[in-house]
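Thread: "does anyone have the structure for this chain?"

Original post by V.I.:
We have the sequence but no experimental structure in hand. Need at least a predicted one for the grant figures.
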Amino acid sequence: MSLKLPFDNTYVRVLSGAFVEWQPARVPAPRLLYLNHSLAQALGLDLQGSDEEALAAAFSGNVLPAGAQPIAQAYAGHQFGGFSPSLGDGRALLVGEVIDRAGRRRDIAFKGSGRTPFSRGGDGKAAVGPMLREVLVGEAMHALGIPTTRALAVVATGEPVLRESVLPGAVLTRVAASHLRVGTFEYFAARGELDKLRRLADYAIARHDPALAPSPSRYLDLLRAVALRQARLIAQWMSVGFIHGVMNTDNMTLSGETIDYGPCAFLEAYDPATVFSSIDRQGRYAFGNQPAIARWNLTRLAEALLPLMHEDPDAAVPLAVEVLEAFADDYERAALAGLRRKLGLRASAGAGISDAEDTQLAADWLALLHAQRVDFTLAWRHLAATAEGADAPLLALFTDAAALADWRARWRRRCAADDAVAGVASAVAGQERARAMRGVNPRIIPRNHQVEAALAAASERGDLVPFNALLTALVQPYSDDPALAPYAEPAPAEVTACYKTFCGT
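Reply from O.Q.:
Generated one for you, tokens below.
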């Protein structure tokens, strides 16, 4: 029995020339490894009457649902700073679009579904480990409240793929607000195809910013909207220690969702220069560089949109520059708001506290973490305990207690200023502050050693028990459940020091 999905495929209808119609490769022995039941329900996916065999056939691409129109999308991209004019979906297919139960349009796409005309010599396939990584990290990000694409299903294909070694193959089904990328705009701009570029921009506006459609400055407004979404997204990444690893322009979405969990990881010991990606040999996409790279990518989007903003390039450039310069302010505002929440602080104009003072307080805290190689996640979590007077957990993370004591005294004075304005007694305020901080400072993140252990068990032994146990923990990032304590433990320093992630292609 075929799956039922209410497809409404606007990309195919509106954007001819932006894709190639293509079919997924058949796989010999599809087997369902993972199905996101809550996401399926939110999408309005009718699973009634579909057993695991039917689900595996559908999510491998062997049996496409009625209404599916699989296409390989065309896009370009700046990869590690160098421009590639024709990238496109080399191992992915957009299967179709659905309107979910909340009325939102969602893309349904395959990853690892075989070669396409954009494959450039690759096999178009994917391995079990990297596809299950997409599940773990994507669902962790979703649980943390960070905009993200999500995995709907993973199916083992029953065939090997060759990477550094022979690995079991898999197909991921990914759900996204859209797969429109900065690189999609670069594709048509590089070819000088302005009619197609305008049609793409109008499509993006209709899909993500429909209120902008009547505006005569709608293309500039689109750039501004995308820049604001990205400023807020990157601020959220930085607040939890997430490193994307490959911030190429083909991996930056117009929707503001995180996409492509290849060489990604979370910080353990805090260091802005941290790079986990095996292919980022120059540190271009290091943790601390992510805000600047986001602006660099947005500059490429601005360049692509310039011909639409104004018929006179000399008039268009300063308009775009103004938006790009505002990005830094948008990011700083979003970052400071997030840091205040993590520190348990209010924006206290009434207490006479300036943004600059709070920014410095947060910067000095991060400098302490860096200097003493403190675990980023645990430091924030234990700071919440300090808010209600339990200092021991935080002290145990630091080798120089005196430096921490000086900063902690400043932080407590800042908290007291908030409490005085609110008229709350210190003991009550401390408990309320600790509760609020535990609601924004996760206890559980995808610890790199635990992710690797779970993926190795699934890939090498076909054992999904560690994967399912880890996933259960990751979707409860703020839980204090004692049973989840092992998932809050950092890796040994010697493991983190040599940890690398790989793109899976």
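V.I.: this helps a lot. The mean pLDDT is 94.
O.Q.: and The chain has 17 helices and twelve strands.
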